[in-house]
Target: PilN domain-containing protein
Amino acid sequence: MNSATQTLRPQIDRARRAWRGSPLPGFLAWWGGELRALLPVRWQAFFSGGNVWCLLRHEEGQWHVRRSGQVSTSPPWSDALDASAQQAMLSTAVAGVDRQDLRLALCLPHDAVLRRRLLLPEAARDNLRQIGAFEMDRQTPFRTDQVYYDLRELPGPAPAGRIAAELVAAPRSAVDAKLEHLRNAGIAIDAVDLCDGDVRLGVNLLPPEMARVHRDPRRRLNLGLAAAAVCLLLFCLGQWLHNRQEALAAMQAQVEDMRGDAQKIGELRKQLEDSSGAAGFLARRKTESIAVVDVLQDLTTRIPDDTWLERFTVDSSGRIGIQGQSAKAASLIDALQGSKLITGANFQGVIQRDPATNKERFFMDAELHNPTSAKPAASSSAGAAR
Model:
């Protein structure tokens, strides 16, 4: 194990614990089992990959092997057999298990192991093995160099801010002899554990440096398949995006064609409105506007005889400008109050007396009375009265 692996090992162990503690492994196992059950029987064994743990026990000079989760055991063999015979017996016991998936665990008897339950802070969850080495002197009569040990987190409730853990330790003297015998027989194991019924307890007393290194030849195939799946997914996404872009371009072209047709229709409608409006423009102008001659006649009858006008203007918006001289200019506002053609009469600027004529010079601003605007106002007031 190199230094880089040792540096990353806490992070890797933390990620493994987080993965195992999440509901995803159970869900994926259930989902995979349901999908595998739909396959033909011949294919189900091919897709049933994964680690298969076989438990190896030594009792009264006999070796017993059984698959984890199964009650039945294989025929035992004596540890007095030579290495080739023991390997043959082991191969017979694990027949049907793929060698790449086979994992062997040496199960120790319960009376050969010391177990202690601990309450630890939650921060210790990421360094359980180091905490186990620290707690060894306090919880057991052994030192760390005298035992094989492991510390596992226990399921179930715990006090707030604490986790329940179990320290499992076995004297090296009781384990080394079995490890040495298996090593001489050419049998490599992956873990040293205890049997909890017909399954493993879930600890590994074997130090990491003594664990067997597995080289999985299917990893390259799995990585290739994963890369191919990612490429296919990217291709599908790219094809979907391309199709959407083509559909969008077709819709934009259709909208542009419809917009051009709408513009042509709008231009034709405008030409029709202009031609129809021009025909009645003069008639409407004549009926809606007030003749200037009528305004002059009304103004002539209302102003007194001692008043004359020097300038009279009417613009297109109906504004009237009146400039002239009068013996009493202030009375002109009252004179124009009753006019039906002129409204809003008001002086602009200051009234000044002309020394040459001894009359008051004035400039008055007014508006033409528009009968068309008076009708909506009258109708609205009548509706409000109702």
